[in-house]
Each structure stands twice: as C-alpha cells, then as structure tokens.
C-alpha cells in the first residue's frame, strides 16, 4: 500500500535530568547568574513589589555609600537610633615632631631608590656583625665556611 | 570619578588630575559579575582649546554624549616654540607682524600670539545702546604660520635642535648657525609652574626633610616590630593548623 506523500513526523523531546545542560532557563530565574530586580519585579511570574529592593546589592558591598550607624525605630514617631559601638573610631598615630608635610615643593630633585632585597637586609643586620667579628678575631670560621667533600669524609 | 587602577597608578599626579577632569560627569559602570566595574574614559575626539581640559569652557565642549569631529594633526617630535618667544607671522591678515607667543596648544599644534591675528565681534546688542566690540585672537599653526627670528639678522628663519660644546640642547638657526635663546616658558612645567621661581610654602616638605633616611632595617616582620614598639607581649602559642 503506497502513501500519497511522505509526512515528516513532529517529534518533541523530553529532558528528565536535573541539570540545565547549557540551556538558559529562567523559571523563575537562572541559578547560575545573580538575581536582579528584572527577574523578581511585580510584572514577572512569582515576583513582588518588595523583592527588587531585597535582592539589590547594598551600596557598601559595591564600595560606595556609608555603613549604617544604627536602626530606625518607632511606629507613630519614626526616629533613627544610633548605636555608639557602630560608629567607627579612627586610630591615628601621634604626629608630634613629625617633619614631613602634606605637599612637596617643586625645587626638590627626584628621589630614586632601588628595591630592598633580602641581601640588603642581611648585609645591614648580620653582615656588619660578621665583618667586625672577623677583624677582632672572634669569628668561628670552622662553623660557618662550607666544608669540601674530603673534609666531610674525614 | 577615577579610582586607583593599574593604569592610573603608573601616571603622575598631574596626569591623573587631568584624566579625572576629562572624565567629569561620567560615572563608572557595573558591567556584571565577570567584568565588574568599568572606569570612565575620556571621549574619543576631545576638542582641545587654549583653555585647558581642566577649565569649564573646554569641558562644556566635551559633554558626555557629544561627539566631536576628529582633527588631523601633524605630529611634532620635539617642540621648538614656547610661551615668551618672539616670532613673526607668515600668513593671514597680520602677515609680517611680530609678537610674543602667549599660549600653546600642543594637541593641535596651535600658538596664540599676543594681540595679533584677531577677529572682532559685537556683543550686548541692546536697542538704543552702543554695542560692545570684542577682539579675540585666532590660533596659528606652529609648523606653517609662525617663524622664529635669527638674533643676528633679525629675519624669520627655520630652526633645529642641536648640541653645543658643553653638551646642552640648544635651538640653532639654519641660515647662520646662531643660537636662539630660550624663553621663560621653556622652564614651565605642564601645570604652569616654573620651578626656578617657585616660592616654597608652609605645607611644602623641603629637600632636607624629604631625603633624610629614617628607616632602620630589622630582622622581624612588621607586626613583630609594632608589638615591640608598643610593648605588647604575646605568650600564647598558635594553635595547630593542618593542610589536606
């Protein structure tokens, strides 16, 4: 029995795995990406008027704004209560007899300083003592100088 | 608002200030978790004028969103003209006249000669009142329209940078070989200060205090040094930590 024409069958596929497999599904939002106001606003499914503010990053998290000093209290008369422990205290060193000023005059020549290496530290702290000991004769060279293979075998 | 970034750390204080002025009105943008904060950049074709980028009149010409035309400028490797130079104008209305250079705009190869090459315009056109006439200078191209004068001939001449016997870099006229002296504007820095004539103020550190070495190298960490200085004694032993 011949068919009049070939009919392409329409197939629909089902996915039973839990992972997203590279597909960007937003039901209600994609867990891989951060949630912002556009996913949870009142016009989207499952959204609310209050959610965007809750999901928004705080200014202090973005490196802007000022940290809270307290909290707001009261129903009829709303006031802001400051907690003294939340007020930041700046610890500043005592600048008595400090000769450096905030600005540098134009008449100063450029200061060029090389990097402070571990060798410089050694020379300054230990090297000097070693040279003095060597000159006076107190230096124990047997303990410091490396031994040759023959000496070690002995 | 330009924060500390790797590119900005390498710039000098003055360059950072100018960069900040050129990005005024533009804020940094949060471009998502991957990119993060993107600092503002000055617009592509900043239109430079005699009022420098830190002035409001130049910033008004470069508002965010305004797109200026690109200006093609002949690159000059070494500048030979400085404020205070006596020059002769070779083109335009005031051809043949001489004057001192007032300002220079290196980004456009311009120079403004004091009182010469001007236009006139009327302002405050109020009925029944005589109008106000204002005279403004037009810039001249340093490469073509202006020439330095030879000290012996007193004639316009081309110049070249050469080294003299002492090893100093000097401007030499091409026709006679005479040295053209440098004006006061040569010693001026980018921010307009002449270090030779600068008067030191109260808040300036002087060379003696700046170059004095007060660092004493010690064989201990910064924290241990602080504890020693402040008299903090720590007898407790650190708890064991494990790496897996």
Short description:
Chain A is α+β, with helices and mostly antiparallel strands. Chain A has 5 helices and 3 strands. Chain A has helices at 37-40, 51-55, 118-136, 141-144, 149-153; strands at residues 70-73, 79-82, 103-104.
The total count of helices of chain B amounts to 5
How many DSSP E strands of chain A?
Answer: 3
Name the largest protein-protein interface in this structure: A-B, 21 and 21 residues
The first-to-last residue Cα distance of chain A is 105 Å
Uncertain segments of chain A are none
Strand content of chain B: 15-25%
Order of helices and strands of chain B: HHEEHEEEEEEEEEEEEHH
Q: From the helix content, strand content and strand pairing of chain A, which structural class follows? A: alpha+beta
Q: Give the topology string of chain A: H per helix, E per strand.
A: HHEEEHHH
Question: Pairing-aware structural class of the strands and helices of chain B?
Answer: alpha+beta
Unreliable runs of chain B, pLDDT <50, ≥5 residues?
A: none
Shape of chain B: extended
Total number of beta strands of chain B = 14
Characterization of this structure:
The complex is a heterodimer of chains A (154) and B (244). Chain A is α+β, with helices and mostly antiparallel strands. Helix content of chain A is 24%, strand content 6%. Chain A contains 5 helices and 3 strands; from the N terminus they run H-H-E-E-E-H-H-H. Chain A has helices spanning 37-40, 51-55, 118-136, 141-144, 149-153; strands spanning 70-73, 79-82, 103-104. Chain A has a two-stranded antiparallel sheet. Chain A is flat. The N and C termini of chain A lie far apart (105 Å). The mean pLDDT of chain A is 81. In chain B, strand 12 (169-173) and strand 13 (179-180) form a beta hairpin. In chain B, 14% of the residues lie in helices and 22% in strands. Chain B has helices spanning 6-10, 13-22, 56-60, 207-211, 222-230; strands at 29-30, 37-38, 86-89, 98-105, 110-113, 118-123, 132-137, 140-141, 146-149, 156-157, 159-163, 169-173, 179-180, 204-205. In chain B, the strands form 4 sheets. Chain B has a 6-stranded antiparallel β-sheet, with no helix packed on it. Chain B has 5 helices and 14 strands. Chain B is α+β, with helices and mostly antiparallel strands. The model of chain B has no long low-confidence stretch (mean pLDDT 91). Strand 3 (103-104) of chain A pairs parallel with strand 14 of chain B, so a sheet runs across the interface.
């Amino acid at each position: 029995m011949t068919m009049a024409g070939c009919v392409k069958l329409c197939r629909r596929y089902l996915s039973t795995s839990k992972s997203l497999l590279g597909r960007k599904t937003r039901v209600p939002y994609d867990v891989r990406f951060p949630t912002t106001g556009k996913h949870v606003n009142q016009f989207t499914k499952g959204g609310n008027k209050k959610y965007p503010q809750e999901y928004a990053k705080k200014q202090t998290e973005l490196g802007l704004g000022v940290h809270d000093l307290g909290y707001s209290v009261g129903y009829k008369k709303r006031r802001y209560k400051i907690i003294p422990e939340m007020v930041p205290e700046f610890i500043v060193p005592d600048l008595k007899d400090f000769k450096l000023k905030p600005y540098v005059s134009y008449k100063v020549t450029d200061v060029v300083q090389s990097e402070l290496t571990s060798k410089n530290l050694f020379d300054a702290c230990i090297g000097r003592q070693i040279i003095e000991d060597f000159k006076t004769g107190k230096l124990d060279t047997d303990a410091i100088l490396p031994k040759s293979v023959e000496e070690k075998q002995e | 608002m330009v924060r500390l970034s790797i590119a900005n750390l390498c710039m000098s204080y003055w360059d950072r200030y100018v960069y900040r002025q050129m990005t005024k009105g533009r804020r940094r943008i949060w471009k998502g978790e991957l990119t993060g904060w993107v600092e503002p950049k000055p617009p592509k074709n900043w239109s430079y004028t005699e009022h420098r980028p830190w002035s409001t009149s130049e910033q008004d010409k470069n508002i965010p969103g305004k797109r200026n035309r690109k200006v093609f400028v002949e690159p000059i490797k070494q500048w030979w003209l400085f404020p205070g130079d006596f020059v002769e104008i070779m083109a335009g209305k005031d051809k043949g006249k001489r004057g001192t250079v007032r300002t220079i705009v290196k980004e456009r190869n311009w120079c403004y000669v004091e009182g010469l090459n001007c236009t006139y315009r009327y302002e405050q056109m109020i009925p029944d009142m005589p109008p106000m006439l204002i005279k403004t200078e037009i810039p001249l191209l340093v490469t073509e329209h202006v020439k330095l004068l030879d000290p012996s001939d007193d004639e316009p001449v081309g110049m070249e940078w050469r080294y003299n016997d002492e090893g100093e870099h000097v401007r030499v006229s091409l026709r006679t070989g005479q040295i053209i002296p440098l004006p006061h504007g040569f010693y001026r820095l980018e921010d307009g200060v002449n270090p030779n004539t600068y008067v030191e103020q109260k808040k300036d550190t002087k060379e003696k205090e700046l170059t004095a070495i007060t660092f004493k190298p010690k064989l201990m960490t910064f924290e241990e040094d602080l504890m020693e200085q402040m008299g903090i004694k720590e007898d407790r032993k650190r708890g064991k930590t494990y790496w897996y």
